[in-house]
Design brief:
heterodimer, A: alpha/beta, Rossmann fold, B: two-stranded antiparallel ribbon, binds adenosine-5'-triphosphate, binds magnesium ion
């Protein structure tokens, strides 16, 4: 098997990388793919709690790299999906405990046995970023419709292009359609024309995201959620399906849309 | 209501303001050109200009100027003589320069 390693990165912190990794990984596994999620945010481990797997951690990424355990021993199987695995970050180590070369080796090994390896990149453009991108053939940039996130995204795209990364796609997260409509938020088109990389999906701003991380169950499992469907569409696009990106996503307020949801979910 | 007041005062929507600002900021960020690339740009400019005029190859200066709402590439070259007819292609121009 020749799997694909995809790094999810952003430059700026807190824009939704970990959320995207958890939901995309889950969406791909729901499609029957074998998936490994690597938390490369050494020292600030988070993907485990978002996935609800924090109680199962014995070994971590640094243990694999320093040879304290076998690769399989540090791979935690998801609670619901048996083709989805997590390699957690070390919590009490520094980012320089790992070398880019070692990450590359690890990703190459995993590619022999899995369809997708998704790497959750830490914020910033230093060592942690270098490690996370080292083994990746593709990159997904996550940004929010805010000036600081967009500027950092542009910087990261520049760095990836300098490393000759050819396959770079964009997720716009936390889009607020109401604000775009009234002209107080940059639109999807605005952001795409600024960053000039292909758009692979738009995720609206939603309380549902917080609620699902509270529970430690990725939102993609919720069949009625608009956000879940947006992530599932991104997974389909990653697999080469051509699905148009809806410009108007139905709002989650209003009686009519609630009524529609009721019909659709039944 | 709020919108109407804003429009009355001719205030732009904040989304539009953000977009305009980002266009300039990203332009500036991306213009941090490495010395190697700058050298290539110089050579390319010389090559193109040599079709039309004889220039002092050592005199060329290229720099980036950043203003509040623009970025400009400024080049300064000393011209010795302008040809009556453009040479056929930049490559030929270089050859004739070398053989002269
Ligand atoms: N579409 C969304 N709507 C509402 N909240 C969101 C959305 N996406 C992410 N969030 C929230 O934003 C916060 C940051 O998200 P997340 O941890 O995924 O970002 P990150 O890029 O991984 O951050 P870091 O750079 O610190 O690793 C979380 O509290 C998350 O629940
Ligand atoms: Mg994160």
């Amino acid at each position: 098997m020749a799997g694909t390693t995809i790094v999810i990165t952003s430059g700026k912190g807190g824009v939704g990388k970990t959320t995207s990794v958890a939901n995309l990984g889950t969406a791909l596994a729901l499609r029957g793919r074998s998936v490994v999620l690597i938390d490369a945010d050494i020292g600030l481990r988070n993907l485990d709690v978002v996935m609800g797997l924090e109680n199962r951690i014995v070994y971590n990424l640094v243990d694999i790299i320093e040879g304290r355990c076998r690769l399989e021993q540090a791979m935690i199987r998801d609670r619901k999906l048996n083709t989805l695995f997590l390699i957690p970050a070390a919590q009490t180590r520094e980012k320089d405990a790992v070398h880019p070369e070692q990450m590359k080796e690890l990703c190459e090994k995993l590619e022999q046995n899995f369809d997708y390896i998704l790497v959750d990149c830490p914020a910033g453009i230093e060592r942690g970023f270098r490690n996370a991108v080292a083994g990746a053939q593709k990159a997904i940039i996550v940004t929010t419709p805010e000036v600081s996130a967009i500027r950092d995204a542009d910087r990261v795209i520049g760095l990836l292009e300098a490393e000759l990364m050819k396959d770079i796609n964009l997720i716009i997260n936390r889009l607020n359609h109401k604000m775009v409509k009234r002209g107080d938020m940059m639109s999807t088109e605005d952001i795409c024309s600024l960053l000039a990389v292909p758009l692979i999906g738009v995720i609206p701003e939603s309380e549902e995201v917080v609620i699902s991380t509270n529970r430690g169950i990725p939102l993609v499992h919720d069949k009625r959620s608009d956000i879940a469907n947006a992530f599932k569409r991104i997974a389909s696009r990653l697999e080469g399906e051509e699905i148009p990106i809806p410009t108007e996503i139905p709002g989650d307020s209003g009686i009519l849309s609630k009524f529609k949801k009721l019909i659709w979910s039944s | 209501m709020f919108d109407a007041i804003r429009r009355f005062f001719g205030e732009k929507k904040s989304g539009e303001v953000a977009k305009k600002r980002m266009q300039i900021v990203l332009l500036h960020d991306r213009l941090s050109i490495s010395p190697e690339v700058m050298e290539e740009i110089k050579n390319d400019i010389l090559r193109v200009l040599s079709r039309y005029m004889e220039i002092d190859q050592k005199s060329i200066k290229v720099s980036l100027e950043k203003g509040d709402d623009y970025a400009a590439l400024v080049s300064n070259v000393h011209v010795r003589r302008v040809y009556r007819h453009a040479l056929s292609s930049p490559e030929n121009a270089q050859k004739s320069e070398n053989s002269a």
